[in-house]
Design brief:
CATH topology of the largest domain: EreA/ChaN-like  fold
CATH class of the largest domain: Alpha Beta
Distance between the termini: 33 Å
Radius of gyration: 22 Å
CATH architecture of the largest domain: 3-Layer(aba) Sandwich
């Protein structure tokens, strides 16, 4: 058994990762089982450098606000703004405080310096403008979409004016009301104005798609792709707000599913541009249906990874990450008989394993999945080995590279 396991172990290097796959995927997904540990991001950063230099990857996407991420992309591609501004205003969920994220942005900017636009590295957020405390107003996305279309489309086709949109949107704080996260009555998502905005947003996105040849010729593909981002963000946010106002038992599962649908749409758009490494929580990237408990209730939804995998087939690859210890979080050595317990006995501090091969070697010998002493760490589910391309295992997470961010997926 031990020999069989060792045969599935490889170094965490781009060549070894690609060796576990039938071909280079358009989307290579690297998951993490917890947030806030820069040691995990150090592994991500080094793998991305190798993928850039050896495999032609040019985009990295992370679990962060897709609109805020435009500031980071502008900085790494052209030096627009400053590094401090990019870190402070270009990340959501507190990820800008991460030293490893700062190192990634610095490296990308240095790599791009002097290179032609076609060869520059790109940065993207794939998450919606969402936080645990609520969702943003659709104003930024919807008005940007309207502003892009207005100079190139006849007024009678626009359905509305900027003034009309402003009136329907109202004050932004009514959209971002934190109490609406737990109290549907406090949400504006099913107001008459929100309903009209959903129809207008849908019509504007349809107009963007219908006028694609003219718009790309009149502006540029880059500007058109940005308008598409604004369009899917506007419609996604309005749909998210609609479900925030729902009082049915399925409310939270719908919100989780809507968030991952927004992430999947952003990820699929990036795949059209070229090979992309995406880094997010395992639960957002796995092929199996995602689940968690919230308020004592079990919730299930299809993740961004499951949606992207269904669409892309073998051009989507998923590598999960599992951990041995996070002692400063109270996560000590894994229990014997668990998957992490078997991997913890290996001599490697860091490795990537052939997941299907590992699953075949272990067969039905594993005990129950590992239990975590800390709610912010999600142990790997052994049943997922068969639908995971690789499993990165990190034996111990050292204290000192952690950031203060939300621990949930």
């Amino acid at each position: 058994m031990a020999t069989d396991i060792k045969n599935t172990v490889h170094a965490v290097e781009a060549a070894a990762v690609m060796g576990l796959l039938p071909a280079r995927p358009r989307v290579l997904a690297l998951g993490e089982p917890t947030h806030g540990e820069d040691a995990l991001l150090d592994v991500r950063n080094e793998l991305f450098r190798q993928l850039v230099e050896e495999e032609g990857y040019r985009t990295i996407a992370i679990e962060s606000d897709c609109l805020m991420g435009l500031l980071v992309d502008a900085y790494v591609t052209s030096g627009s703004g400053s590094l401090d501004e990019a870190m402070e205003h270009g990340f959501s969920h507190g990820f800008g405080a991460s030293e490893a994220n700062r190192e990634l942005v610095c490296w990308m900017r240095a790599y791009n310096d002097g290179r032609p636009p076609s060869d520059r590295l790109r940065f993207a957020g794939v998450d919606g403008p969402l936080e645990m405390t609520g969702a943003a107003s659709p104003r930024q996305a919807l008005t940007a979409l309207h502003a892009y279309l207005a100079p190139h489309v006849d007024d009678d086709l626009l359905f509305c004016t900027a003034h009309t949109l402003d009136g329907l949107l109202g004050a932004d704080d009514r959209w971002s009301e934190p109490a609406a996260m737990t109290d549907p009555v406090r949400s504006t998502g099913r107001s008459a104005e929100a309903g009209e905005l959903r129809l207008l947003a849908d019509d504007l996105v349809a107009l963007l798609d219908a006028r694609t040849p003219h718009l790309i010729a009149a502006t540029s593909r880059e500007e058109w792709e940005l308008a598409r981002l604004h369009g899917r963000t506007a419609t996604g946010l309005l749909r998210y707000h609609f479900w925030m106002a729902d009082a049915s038992p399925g409310r939270m599962a719908r919100l989780l599913g809507q968030r991952d649908l927004m992430m999947a749409e952003n990820l699929l758009a990036l795949a059209e541009r070229g090979p992309t490494l995406v880094h997010a929580h395992n639960s957002h990237l796995q092929r199996a249906r995602s689940s968690m408990r919230m308020g004592g209730l079990p919730l299930e939804w299809w993740s961004a990874g499951s949606i992207a995998s269904a669409r892309l087939g073998e051009e989507y690859a998923f590598f999960a990450t599992a951990l041995g210890t996070i002692r400063h979080r109270g996560v000590d050595a894994p229990q014997p008989g668990t998957l992490e317990g078997l991997l913890y006995a290996l001599p490697d501090d860091l490795c990537v394993l052939d997941s299907p091969g590992l699953g075949a070697a272990l067969a039905d010998t594993l005990a129950a999945p590992r239990a975590s002493a800390w709610f912010g760490y999600f142990p790997f589910e052994p049943a997922h080995l068969a639908v995971t391309d690789g499993l990165v295992f990190i034996k111990d997470i050292p204290q000192g590279r952690a950031t203060s961010i939300r621990p949930s997926p």
